[in-house]
């Protein structure tokens, strides 16, 4: 019996996902401790992988970087597309070079088909009445109940206290950061706006500002920008990093990032607390993000 291509791919994804569920990522330095099936009253149960650097000691304190799509960060052999961010290699090299502060990484797994609902910054919907794109909103959101506010409550009110009580961490915002790519970049931006007392910096790589996958009649970026005008945190004690490539999905991002950049300037952000970078020829992939991860890490985690 021959399987259709869609069925075959579905089975392959399921097999890879189950493998990732049962197997700890292999890292080149440091070690991974898993908070398995972390329960929440706000969102669905999920795994959380905590990377401790090789120099981790109970006699030191560490900054904390929370990252989305946690199953994609450390080990390409158990990811669905055989790619990874190379977080452990990159951060270890920076620590050894004394370029960043001592840091642990908390990799929060996404929840598969609920990823969009959890990463979509739902408070921008307050600005929908100013948009003509009602059909686009309806088509994109009809199968989703926005969960970003609950997802951020889970991180700030449940996961962070657990991490701070389990590991030797600095608890203040000056040592608490959040980051991700694509929709993960978008929810990181939303997080620092919603919880400015919790997060002191956000790394937003290939931020999926269009939300949709088209630039035609797409008003989502305008809504996001309106939200940012009212909610960006104080630039005097927050840092935000943006970037984008120019190939594949990233080719949509430049005009929308420029719109956000104007708002950043208007709100008082300068090169001291904000970076936007363009990477010519880079696409929308973990391989691309891994090649430039050292830049936001150095910017946010500088001593």
Word description of this protein:
The structure is a single chain. The protein has 303 residues and is of the alpha/beta class. It has a single domain, classed as Rossmann fold, CATH 3.40.50.1820. It contains 10 helices and 8 strands. The protein has an 8-stranded mixed β-sheet, with helices on both faces. Helix 2 links the parallel strand 3 (63-67) and strand 4. The longest helix has 19 residues, at 148-166. It is globular and about 50 Å long.
Strands ordered across the widest β-sheet: 1-2-4-3-5-6-7-8
User: Rg to the nearest angstrom?
Assistant: 19 Å
| Euclidean distance between termini CA atoms | 60 Å
Seen as an oligomer or otherwise, the chain set is single chain
Count of domain modules: 1
Low-confidence stretches: 5-9, 13-19
Q: What is the global morphology?
A: globular
Structural class category: alpha/beta
Order of helices and strands: HEEEHEHHHEHEHEHEHH
Largest sheet: 8 strands, mixed
Query: How many β-strand runs?
Result: 8
Helix content: 25-40%
What's the level 1 CATH class?
Answer: Alpha Beta
CATH topology tier name = Rossmann fold
Number of distinct helices: 10
- Overall mean pLDDT stands at 90
Query: Could you say what the CATH architecture is?
Result: 3-Layer(aba) Sandwich
Q: What is the CATH homologous superfamily assignment?
A: Alpha/Beta hydrolase fold, catalytic domain
Percent range for β-strand residues:
15-25%
